[in-house]
UniProtKB/TrEMBL annotation:
Transmembrane segments: none annotated. It comes from Oryza brachyantha. This is Protein LURP-one-related 6. It holds the Pfam family LOR. The gene is LOC102722291. SUPFAM superfamilies: Tubby C-terminal domain-like. InterPro entries: LOR, LOR_sf, Tubby-like_C. PANTHER family: PROTEIN LURP-ONE-RELATED 6, PTHR31087. Belongs to the LOR family. It comes from the Eukaryota.
């Protein structure tokens, strides 16, 4: 039985639970961002941030071969400036370079909304609420969880105890979940918290 839940593509969904290792690149090396490997140390995804792209609030997720699969940008403009939420949009990229909106992530930015959960809306889904995924916990402490709108955990982040530094952590992705989407969410959280993808 196929229990895959693709957001970006079915090719990024695995039939088994998957642990992905994330290592931050120093900003001075290849423009910052981070590299994602599997437990066999094979590069699965690469995330480029401001240092590589040259623009604040823009991120690029590539597969292990360096092919661009997702472009993420923080929404700007006067309406966004007046909003109590920061909004990020993720766009899939086809072979011709055309972009198609896949998801939107809303992060609280003001005191009155601080403590409110970060929510993700998937463009092509029928929603069980007015959002599809929710992020809880602390990214800064490397202890956060992504759940779907029914409360089911789809991914959980943690530190590797033997390494014990913020430059190296892991994300456990449940079977059937889209790993590229989870890494895209990690990239946005990294940027929000002023880490390796931010200038």
């Amino acid at each position: 039985m196929d229990n895959s839940m693709p957001v970006i593509s079915k090719i990024f969904c695995s039939s088994t639970l998957t642990t992905l290792m994330i290592r931050r690149r120093p900003i001075v090396v290849n423009g910052g961002g981070f590299v994602v490997t599997d437990l066999s140390n094979n590069v699965v995804f690469i995330v480029d941030g401001c240092g590589m792209l040259g623009s604040k609030g823009e991120l690029l997720v590539k597969d292990g071969d360096g092919e661009e699969i997702l472009f993420i940008s923080r929404k700007g403009g006067i309406i966004q400036a007046l909003s109590t939420w920061n909004k990020w949009n993720g766009y899939s990229m086809d072979y011709q370079g055309k972009k198609k909106l896949v998801f939107s992530l809303s992060d609280p930015k003001l005191c009155i909304t601080k403590g409110a959960p970060t929510r993700i809306h998937i463009e092509h889904k029928r929603h069980c609420k007015n959002w599809d995924f929710e992020i809880s916990g602390s990214f800064a402490d490397r202890d956060c969880t992504i759940t779907d709108c029914s409360g089911k955990i789809v991914a959980q982040m943690g530190k590797k105890e033997q390494i014990g530094c913020k430059d190296f952590y892991h994300v456990v992705v449940q079977s059937g979940c889209d790993k590229a989407f989870i890494i895209a969410v990690m990239a946005v959280l990294d940027n929000i918290h002023g880490e390796s993808t931010r200038c």
